[in-house]
Structure formats: structure tokens, C-alpha cells
Amino acid sequence: MRSLKIVDYFDTPEVLDASITTIPGNASSPLQVIASLAKTSYQLVIADSAQQMVGVYKGLPGQEQLECIIGPGVREVDVSLHRGTRISLRSMTPDPVNYGQLCVQFLGDT
Prior knowledge:
Elements: E1 5-8, E2 16-17, E3 31-34, E4 41-48, E5 54-58, E6 65-70, E7 76-81, E8 87-91, E9 101-108
Antiparallel strand pairs: 1-9, 2-9, 3-8, 4-7, 4-9, 5-6, 5-8
């Protein structure tokens, strides 16, 4: 079995405070949270106090693709995000997420 370690967090600040930096609704462009992923990631570990459905997207601006959805009760998600990938977030509903905190640890091989 593969032993995974933390390889990246969101670009500063590592913990996103949605009351300061709002996660846009699903009709808007996603919010970039990592310009270039440091290493390939195979799993996300999530700490989320907002408890809202949020899409994690990969890809260039205007070409984002949904990788997974995080939200209430979701603590770990298996993914395949390659080194250098741009990561962004967007609410899965029309309403922006404008409260709570979100921290995502990206796990991969060290």
C-alpha cells in the first residue's frame, strides 16, 4: 500500500476564510486556490466548517474541469491531480459560499 504525505496546500493563505475570500456560485468562474500544484496528488483531506457543496476544479482559466465535489461529511477524496495543475473552487449551487473556513491537504508521494 502506498504511503502518502502532504505535498501541497492552497496558495497563501493555506486556510481559506470564505468571509474574506468568497467561493463563487456556479454561474461564475471558479476561484483559483493553487496556481501550480507542487507534486502529483492522489488524495485530498478536507477540513470544512462551511458545510457547503463545493466543486474542486483543475485546468486553465476558462477550461476548468470538475475533479470532485466536497461538502458535508466528506473528509477524504481520491483524486488524480498532476504536478503543475492549476486548482480552483466553485460552489455547486447558484449561491456563493461566503462564510466558514476550508482547508484542503493534497496528499502524494514524497
